[in-house]
Design goal:
By secondary structure, this protein is α+β, with helices and mostly antiparallel strands. Among the domains are: 129 residues; 95 residues, Immunoglobulin-like (Sandwich). The chain is built from 15 helices and 25 strands. The chain has a 5-stranded mixed β-sheet, with no helix packed on it. The protein has a 5-stranded antiparallel β-sheet with strand order 14-15-21-17-18, with no helix packed on it.
Length: 571
């Protein structure tokens, strides 16, 4: 029996339904991009992101979701996604969008798409070793380097799209008309760096070197105080691309040991947190889209926070756990009773739009534009209601689950094992069974001798009533939080040596409290139990968030076991 509490690997199994269900089987398995649930019946539409961007996101997400959950559902559709992705490459090594049946856009290599392409090729190669993925990735990285405009200390792309004949305007190169650097260069660094770490590709690392210099020294994307430049040329301070660039810079700073770069990231990250709610709702940008939260932005916050925590700022582990427990998982579409759907394709527009079983096909997806209290965003400000799903957020949401799951337990140098997130998770070293938010209790089942075991304790739990008790094993003892020298970096309770077969129960008092959260001028009264939101007021209109959560004096239990893969993917 295990606690019936949040299990990220289970959520990953659910999202596979949407990853596969978004495919348009009548249009060569090209996935739909948007969905509108407010419409009756609901519908999905294609868009100009359908090609390298969408396929890259879904291949990456499917790979991570399968690794977490062990699910094999939809393998044939995933195979079609991979075949499509490889088909979008031209001889120059770049991924090109294709002309839609309605002729609404031209073939071009959009620079935003290239980030999802190298991301997916990297994950695909890491998981399978498929030589097709590496061959395509090597050509792709070489192309990204070849087309970059190179100056003394920075590289950049002078337009948002590259054509087979080159950049659309030589004048753009001459007068340095670089479009938003965060969107086209900054976010690209993250998968490039990982590809270098996995394969040793030097071109990928060199791109990171000169793109990071562009962002920090020359771009103007971030203001002196760390805030986002909201000028129109910088996409109005678009949060997904700003924080995604911070994620990339943090990873590059950690890789190179550049403390000044990490300081740059931390300053801007801390400013970004002031614009978000404590439970993880983020603005879309700082102008017209500011009321529209993208799951993509939240996942960027999660990933950046994890890297900063690894670099010596352990307070961010708690920040990230709040995001995982709340707006990430609360924004996953599991209840579909409120969505009206059609059972036939008679109203469909081939290659453009479908009404067919939209609710069933998108179960498990993550919100594209959610409100703090509602799956759908339809406020009186900004652009009003636009869409409820975006395929990019399905990919990002899956990656957010993976980042939480893969970093919950970590083996450090010197034999230390740390529990970072107080979520249920199995591993070859130990299993963590979490009774939160019902009880302040963790049960650790140790599978392998550990020289030094440490567990993060939430800041709201204090320290004097925290204790760890060995309930089975050879060495029965109790460690209390008010003992001297049992705390590491303020947040980790040091349990010391643990033996295979030990069971350790860690307990601490729960805290019930309220906060007032501001979301771009909107105020919400939020009730918490520990790190979990259990009520929010006012309530949402279409599919209210948070108010369906139930809290018990004792955590409910269920039959089950934890996933313990033979090998671990690390991002």
């Amino acid at each position: 029996m295990i606690p019936d509490t949040l299990l990220l690997e289970e959520r990953a199994g659910h999202v596979l339904n949407a990853i596969i269900g978004m495919a348009d089987e009548d249009y060569d398995y090209i996935p739909f991009f948007n969905a509108n649930f407010v419409s009756k019946p609901a519908f999905m539409t294609h868009g100009d992101w359908d090609y390298g961007s969408s396929h890259g996101r879904l291949i990456d997400a499917a790979t991570l979701a399968r690794h977490m959950s062990g699910e094999t559902f939809g393998l044939e559709t995933e195979k079609r996604y991979k075949e499509n992705l490889l088909r979008f490459f031209k001889e120059d090594g770049l991924s090109y969008r294709r002309k839609n049946p309605q002729g609404r856009w031209e073939e071009a290599a959009n620079l935003i798409d290239q980030r999802a392409v190298i991301l997916s090729l990297t994950t695909w190669f890491m998981a399978t070793g498929d030589p097709r993925a590496k061959e395509a990735a090597d050509k792709h990285v070489a192309a990204l380097k070849r087309i970059a405009v190179k100056e003394k200390d920075v590289w950049y792309y002078p337009a948002s799209e590259y054509f087979e004949g080159g950049w659309p305007s030589k004048n753009a190169v001459q007068i340095r008309l670089a479009p938003d650097p965060a969107s086209f260069c900054g976010r690209l660094m993250m998968p490039l760096l990982k590809y270098h770490e996995v394969t040793g590709n030097r071109d990928a690392l060199e791109l990171c070197e000169f793109f990071s210099a562009l962002i920090v020294k020359r771009s103007g994307v971030y203001n002196e105080d760390g805030s986002f430049n909201s000028s129109l040329a910088y996409r109005s301070g678009h949060f997904h691309t700003r924080i995604g660039t911070l994620d990339a810079l943090a990873r590059y700073g950690r890789h190179t040991g550049d403390a000044s770069l990490l300081h740059f990231v931390k300053k801007s990250y801390d400013w970004a947190l002031t614009q978000c709610t404590r439970f993880g709702w983020t603005p879309g940008d700082m102008q017209e889209q500011k009321y529209e939260h993208e799951t993509c932005s939240l996942v960027d916050l999660i990933s950046t926070g994890i890297t900063l925590a690894k670099c010596g700022y352990p307070e961010y582990w708690g920040v990230v756990e709040r995001f995982l427990r709340n707006h990430l998982t609360e924004s996953q579409l599991l209840d579909l009773d409120w969505v009206d759907e059609a059972d036939s394709k008679e109203k469909d527009v081939p290659g453009m739009k479908t009404y067919f079983k939209v609710a069933q096909r998108t179960r498990g997806a993550f919100a594209g534009y959610s409100a703090p209290n509602d799956f759908c965003c339809d406020v009186n400000h900004g652009r009003g209601h636009t869409s409820d799903l975006q395929l990019c957020c399905i990919g990002s949401g899956t990656r957010g689950l993976f980042m939480g799951w893969s970093n919950a337990i970590a083996e450090e140098a010197g034999g230390t094992v740390r529990v970072h997130f107080l979520l249920s998770r199995g591993s070859k070293v130990l299993d963590v069974s979490s009774y939160l938010p019902h009880e302040g209790k963790l049960e650790l089942a140790v599978h392998r001798d550990i020289a030094n075991l440490e567990v993060r304790i939430p800041e709201w739990a204090g320290y004097n009533q925290v204790q760890a008790e060995w309930t089975s094993g050879s060495d029965a003892r109790v460690i209390k939080g008010n003992q001297p020298s049992v705390w590491v970096k303020d947040v980790f309770l040091r349990l010391g040596e643990a033996k295979a077969g030990d069971t350790i129960v860690v307990t601490f008092p729960l805290s019930r409290y309220k906060t007032v959260e501001n979301a771009v001028g909107q105020q919400f009264e939020v009730e918490w139990q520990g790190d979990d939101v259990i009520h929010i007021s006012p309530e949402g209109r279409y599919q209210p968030l948070y108010n369906g959560r139930r809290i018990y004096d004792k955590a409910p239990m269920r039959e089950g076991d934890y996933r313990r893969p033979e090998t671990e993917l690390t991002w």
